Amino acid sequence: MFKLVNKRCVTLVLILVASIITATSPITTNAADPIFTLLKAFGIGYVVQTFAPQMNTAVNAIMQNNKVMSSETTKVVPIISLGNGAHIGAVQVTGSSTQVNKVAAVAQLEVEGNESWFRAKALVPVNSFDVRTIQRVSGVGISAVLDIRL
Hints:
With 150 residues, the chain is of the alpha+beta class.
């Protein structure tokens, strides 16, 4: 009588419900509220990990339509902030298949000048989500940055 529900389906429903509650809540929330930060980070990470192949195909189609397709292997991975390990977006990496397959994520490092007149963001392909054991994957570049709106 009762069917077993797929874990993926339950997770998607929970994310959808949390997003609707967050978006329609009359209560104003502080952007630094940890629960909303975690919810957003989890949601982005889940979306990227679940739909990475489809995102990669879409980016490749856009590149091909504009005659700038890479002849090397491509893959979509999450961007993680090295400050807290949160998933904050996605990128497409490109390079040899051996090197691209080593990439687990892209670490984002941010630097702001003393006078705040400039800011730099470095995107570094890395082999792990664990910020304590992270290592750069050489020979891999960033070919696209994907904005994910939840």
